[in-house]
Specification:
It is built from 41 helices and eight strands. By secondary structure, it is mainly alpha-helical. Among the domains are: 24-161, 3-Layer(aba) Sandwich (Rossmann fold), CATH 3.40.50.300; 176-264; 381-490, Alpha Horseshoe (Serine Threonine Protein Phosphatase 5, Tetratricopeptide repeat); 567-692, Serine Threonine Protein Phosphatase 5, Tetratricopeptide repeat (Alpha Horseshoe), CATH 1.25.40; 704-768, Arc Repressor Mutant, subunit A (Orthogonal Bundle), CATH 1.10.10.10. Pfam families: GerE, HTH_77, NB-ARC.
């Protein structure tokens, strides 16, 4: 006779040996998902914390399941056919006479109201999917929470991707007191204290801790492994050694599963679950520096073994297994590898002997993109191509670096750097563009047309930064090479000659040089260089006092830009006409043209032209005796100038000085400084919005606003959170129920837009130092 024992009310549950850090948002998401769906799958890369999140979420919801929450650990299961047996064993069901199947498990569960957690399903995915489908069909009160690197792929499944922990932006400057508000750093600090009880985040180690967490992509397991090394290394030493992370992060928890003891073992486990095509694509996509799209993957990763037709299905498989992460940016879908996963893929690629060949294809793909952008630059797709190249910027850098380290790459590198001449300028990356040009030229290239074109582009970029000595050296070599090439190839050299002459104050000669070269460029078909020549002619004519030539040059440029649907050079034409209108005593027309120019620049990152337009608007305000507005606009131009990183007024400093003196005299020094600061002490976005005459987007509410949004009781509880009290301790302190304390803390998190108690603590500290109205 069969004797099936009745399981206890509550399932066997692992004790948490370390504190649970963060994940409040994710816990809330799991709770909501299980309230509406009977099957919820937590997916994500290995080590991201799926198991810990599922365990905590299930335990928190235990009161909602009178028949218990039950954990089924599948990680150590090698025989896929034993999945049903693992479930009944976890449920505490003992029956020696039954051969367990999905159907017999369902009969045992029947109509019990319980939550089943199936942990680590990826290596027994097919059987798990069939078993879960059968259980859900036959057990109406059952709910199932799954953790897996790949979704089960059955009807009714609610998929919740688990992301890495939040890290500070590398460009942000976060106070040590606020670092713990970032979940990744809070975890590192918590685990560090287990190794070094006196560990405290401060100015010295906070930067290193941030760097460690970013380099490890916010992956909890990797962060915990790194923290263990604090027994013998400082945070700075750990950060420096992370280039060889697979040898560093090897001291894990000996009681954990083998694949959780070292970072390499963890990723090897993921690799073993991939097909041969998936392993191949994983290795090949490691050459991408940041993210990539499907077109990029097909161009770079396909060959006779992994064909272009295979790429989409293989890519899908890697996304399903959480090796690749889909990176949505509002355009075509893009994909990326976490840095740790990329490094492992790069190791696989090196071992395969294909690294050079795949990186050459990556270089050639970047070259094709760059030259396509150059071909379509002066036209209606200009802003789209600019955005595309901005998206691929990290890949362009990687390709250029490869060109400098690969014997056959110099020609490609020369062509990429030259094709991106205007891109460097429009992106506000003139210094970077110069650096690439200089490195490639110093590396040595053939004395051909490609080198001549790069010399001209490099000298032009140098002159944009008023670096006349460096430009003169480049121009001298370009003249020598130009003697052996046709006139069209060498024609842009005259632009650099004219600009060089203008920078030395000889505007009359600069106008003559421009007038000489413009007809040649007009009929050469090289619209980017021709439009540059027209801008230069207009500026030099303006400084020479030749209003007729100014109007002719800028109006020709305006007509040409509008004919081709081009925006960037059109903005310079409008600015140039605006300056001339102001000089002719037409301030209103000048302001209109300046703001039209600013509107066109919104699709680009050319802070130089933004700043020129803001400066012109300051002159206009001075002319109209709106001196407070003028002072504020001078401050606005300064804000933009800081972003541009270069002087805005190489040529027009006399106009600036004259208008500024008038404004300062009219307002007085103290009032001028106040108005100037109003324009200068703002973000770049606010500065440009003000110059455009548009209200800026609403900034984050001042710190005191959340204070007023919290009730008196909530502020009291926030202070107790700051003191480190648990919900139970808060309840005892305030003589309220623990459930009420939990509800208050949850409300505080929602009102402040936070995700963790540590963020409340940081806010309470800083808010305590902020004066509030009674």
């Amino acid at each position: 006779m069969t004797d099936v024992s009745t399981p206890p009310v509550q399932g066997k549950w692992p004790t948490e040996l370390t504190s649970f850090v963060g994940r409040r948002k994710e816990l809330s998401q799991v709770r909501r998902a299980l309230s509406s769906s009977r099957l919820v799958s937590l997916t994500g890369v290995g080590g991201v914390g799926k198991t810990r999140l599922a365990s905590r979420a299930a335990w928190n919801m235990r009161r909602a399941f009178p028949d218990g929450v039950w954990l089924v650990e599948l990680a150590g299961l090698e025989d896929e056919g034993l999945v049903p047996q693992a479930i009944v064993s976890a449920l505490g069901i003992h029956d020696q006479s039954t051969r367990w199947t999905a159907e017999t498990v369902a009969k045992s569960v029947a109509d019990r109201r319980l939550l089943l957690v199936l942990d680590n399903c990826e290596h027994v995915l097919e059987t798990c999917a069939l078993t879960v489908a059968a259980l859900l069909e036959r057990c109406p009160e059952l709910r199932i929470l799954v953790t897996s690197r790949q979704a089960l792929g059955i009807a009714g499944e609610y998929i919740l991707p688990v992301s890495a922990l939040q890290c500070p932006d590398p460009n942000s400057h976060v106070k040590p007191s606020a670092l713990a508000g970032y979940e990744a750093i809070a975890l590192f600090s918590d685990r560090a204290k287990a190794v070094l009880p006196d560990f405290v985040l401060d100015d010295h180690n906070g930067h290193a801790a941030s760097g460690i967490c970013r380099r490890l992509d916010g992956i909890p397991l990797a962060i915990e492994l790194a923290a263990v090394n604090l027994r013998v290394l400082s945070p700075d030493q750990i950060l420096r050694r992370l280039d060889n992370r697979f040898s560093l992060l090897t001291s894990g928890n000996r009681a954990a599963l083998p694949r959780h003891q070292t970072l390499r073992a963890l990723i090897e486990w993921s690799c073993d679950l991939c097909s041969s095509n998936e392993k191949e694509l994983w290795a090949r996509t490691s050459v991408f520096a940041d993210s990539f799209d499907l077109d990029g993957a097909e161009a770079v990763c396909a060959d006779e073994n992994l064909t272009q037709a295979d790429i989409l299905d293989t890519l899908t498989g890697l996304v399903d297994k959480s090796i690749l992460i889909r990176d949505d940016r509002g355009g075509p879908a893009r994909f990326r590898l976490l840095e740790t996963i990329r490094q492992y893929g790069r190791d696989m690629l090196r071992r395969s002997g294909q690294e050079t060949r795949v990186r050459q294809r990556h270089r050639d793909w970047c070259l094709k993109l760059s030259e396509q952008m150059q071909q379509h630059w002066f036209g209606p797709d200009q802003a789209r191509w600019f955005a595309r190249l901005r998206t691929e910027h990290a890949n362009i850098r990687t390709a250029l670096e490869f060109c400098l380290n690969e014997p056959t790459g110099t020609v490609a590198g020369t062509r990429i750097a030259d094709a991106l001449r205007d891109y460097w300028r429009v992106s506000g990356l003139t210094s970077e563009g110069r650096r690439w040009c200089d490195r490639i030229l110093q590396h040595g290239t053939e004395k051909d047309g490609d080198r001549l074109r790069l010399l001209i582009s490099a000298s032009y970029l140098a002159l944009l930064q008023s670096d006349v000595p460096a430009a003169s050296t480049l121009i001298s070599e370009a003249r020598t090479l130009a003697a052996d090439h046709d006139g069209d190839t060498a024609a842009p050299l005259q632009i650099t000659d004219a600009l060089n002459t203008a920078l030395q104050g000889d505007f009359s000669t600069a106008v003559e040089l421009c007038e000489e070269m413009i007809p040649r460029l007009r009929f050469s078909g090289d619209l980017p260089w021709f439009s540059t020549g027209l801008v230069l002619l207009g500026v030099c004519a303006s400084l020479h006092g030749d209003s007729e030539r100014v109007t002719a040059a800028h109006e020709e440029l305006l007509a040409l830009s509008r004919e081709y649907g081009e925006s960037w050079r059109c903005s310079y034409a409008l600015w140039g006409l605006g300056v001339d209108a102001w000089r002719q005593g037409q301030p209103q027309r000048a302001a209109t043209l300046a703001r039209e120019s600013l509107d066109l620049l919104q699709g680009f990152n050319d802070q130089h032209c933004n700043g020129l337009c803001a400066e012109l608007l300051a002159w206009v305000a001075t002319s109209e005796n709106r001196h407070a507005d003028a002072a504020q606009m001078f401050g606005t131009a300064e804000t933009i100038r800081r972003e541009a990183g270069a002087p805005l007024l190489t040529f027009f400093s006399n106009y600036h000085d004259e208008c500024e003196q008038r404004t300062r005299h009219a307002l007085g020094d103290d009032q001028y400084r106040l108005c100037y600061a109003k324009g200068a002490d703002v973000s770049l976005e606010q500065a440009i919005a003000y110059a455009r005459g548009k209200p800026p987007r609403t900034e984050a509410a001042p710190r005191k606003e959340p204070h007023t949004r919290l009730s008196r009781r909530e502020r009291e509880i926030a202070e107790l959170v700051r003191q480190g009290m648990s919900n139970k301790q808060i309840a005892s302190n305030l003589v309220i129920s623990q459930r009420t304390a939990e509800a208050h803390v949850e409300n505080i998190l929602v009102k402040l837009g936070f995700t963790s108690r540590s963020q409340i603590a940081v806010w309470a500290i800083e808010d305590d130092n902020t004066p509030h109205a009674s």
